[in-house]
Design brief:
The structure holds two protein chains of two kinds. Chain A is mainly β. Chain A is 0% helix and 49% strand. Chain B is mostly beta strands. In chain B, the strands form two sheets. In chain B, strands 2, 4, 5, 9, 10 and 11 form a six-stranded mixed beta sheet that branches. In chain B, strand 9 and strand 10 form a beta hairpin. Chain B is globular and about 45 Å long. Classes of the chains: A mainly beta, B mainly beta. Chains A and B meet through strand 5 and strand 10 of A and strand 5, strand 9 and strand 10 of B.
């Protein structure tokens, strides 16, 4: 079946603008994770959803970052007042449910803030 | 601060050799350990998970876990040029909501 999809694949924006990044998880997967990966680094956790609720948002760097998953499927990561330091690849991963289940990553959205 | 440490490399091995990738972590009571492969410009792909001390083999890959030494490794036998990628170690530290903490990854180059 279909894997995790993310849109857009690339996003270029100007400093101070608002952006939304979308993640479509594998159908039926209850857990959804957002990560940020900078060049030469491993993925850095941002937020984790179990169903519709954010089970852990301790990785969000500040209040400019927010994510929703209103129907327990698609999730949107929202970044307000973007800064150049927000430039990175934003990865989404979905997981069937249990923490030992495999996480399946999407292709990522490359965000560039000019 | 819970950390996962990996040598960034690159680790260069000839085709057919055994590649040994190492990872150390800071929390003695961690429960779940993962190795991901990430090709350049692509997203991570899980290749091995291990939860108990000892070895776990899957094809050409063997994961080794030593909780006393807080050390997990990945061996790749009969390395192929197609194995050239960055290998990420991830640990689910105990006491939290099972969020994996990733190392920075080790770049592996398998040359013909």
């Amino acid at each position: 079946g279909a894997g995790v999809s993310q849109t857009p694949s690339n996003k270029v924006t100007e400093k101070g603008k608002y952006v939304e990044l979308r993640c479509d998880p594998i159908s039926g997967h209850t857990a959804l994770y957002w990560y940020r990966q900078s060049l030469g680094q491993g993925p850095e956790f941002l937020i984790y959803f179990q169903g519709t609720g954010a089970a852990d948002d301790s990785g969000l760097p500040n209040d400019r970052f927010f994510a929703v998953r209103p129907e327990g499927s698609v999730s949107t990561l929202k970044i307000q007042r973007t800064e150049r330091g927000d430039s990175a690849v934003y990865l989404c991963a979905s997981q069937e449910g249990h923490h030992t289940d495999t996480q399946y990553f999407g292709p990522g959205t490359r965000l560039t803030v000019l | 601060q819970k950390e996962v440490e990996q040598n960034s490399g690159p680790l260069s091995v000839p085709e057919g050799a055994i590649a040994s990738l190492n990872c150390t972590y800071s929390d003695r009571v961690s429960q779940s350990f993962f190795w991901y492969r990430q090709y350049s410009g692509k997203s991570p792909e899980l290749i091995m998970s291990i939860y108990s001390n000892g070895d776990k083999e899957d094809g050409r890959f063997t994961a080794q876990l030593n909780k006393a030494s807080q050390y997990v490794s990945l061996l790749i036998r009969d390395s192929q040029p197609s194995d050239s990628a960055t290998y990420l170690c991830a640990v689910n530290f105990s006491g939290g909501s099972y969020i994996p903490t990733f190392g920075r990854g080790t770049s592996l180059i398998v040359h013909p």
